């Protein structure tokens, strides 16, 4: 097998395409022949030693992938050789093969492509947990999605629409806004040229959004929160822009608003039955055509450094997927 090996997490340049022995799965594990692996923002942070999870060295990055079960370890009964699966295990995806915990593998129904499956779990699980569980979104409410053309942003638009909400998508270019409209957004804001607060006020008749979905952080957090509706819920999803904002608590008091943390990874570990039910619903929505990952492009696995560079340029719309 071959994989992109990180021996020193100093950045993408430290990754090397390396031939390694093909491992044998132990009890509770499976060997997966990887067909596709998506590139997520944590995959960049982890090779820069900036992510909260710091795997022992050396490691193979690539948190999310899909492929075919090539071998099963002792005690694995719900998966079999030749079965198509998707997995989000944190590492291991950027190669031709990997060992994965069987418990983390999602069996794929017929018709679920490897490319879509590799771009599915993280963004849809995060967005469903955020909007349905944490925000308790109701039909008819208005959702503002920041960073709306990214992976979790596009998933949030689709899930909010599937739940009957009105969606305002905010992104950094007219091209990204057009993409958001094409997947269901009711209105858009180009915050590179529009004043965010003025645009929100105009699009909500001064009421503000009931739910704000923020995977970006940075400079737009405070103006967005100042615009939230009475009893609004501000979802803290991530900080893709880099800086972690500090919000004045008096704003929450004045709006009767909630600042709600979203940590799907821990939710999945702490509440596995609820997470499994959620993933079942998401797979059903995919089969019904209610949700479908937006794929920016696919690239050969050997071109991973170029894919990292494209993601770092902030030009990605939806998800980047590497294929073998």
From TrEMBL:
Domain of life: Bacteria
Molecular function via GO: oxidoreductase activity
Entry EC no(s): 1.-.-.-
Keyword Oxidoreductase: yes
Domain Enoyl reductase (ER) positions: 11-322
PROSITE patterns: QOR_ZETA_CRYSTAL
Alphabetically ordered keywords of this record: Oxidoreductase
Pfam families in UniProt: ADH_N, ADH_zinc_N
Protein's UniProt keywords contain Protein biosynthesis: no
Name of this protein: NADPH:quinone oxidoreductase family protein
Organism classification: Bacteria, Pseudomonadati, Pseudomonadota, Betaproteobacteria, Burkholderiales
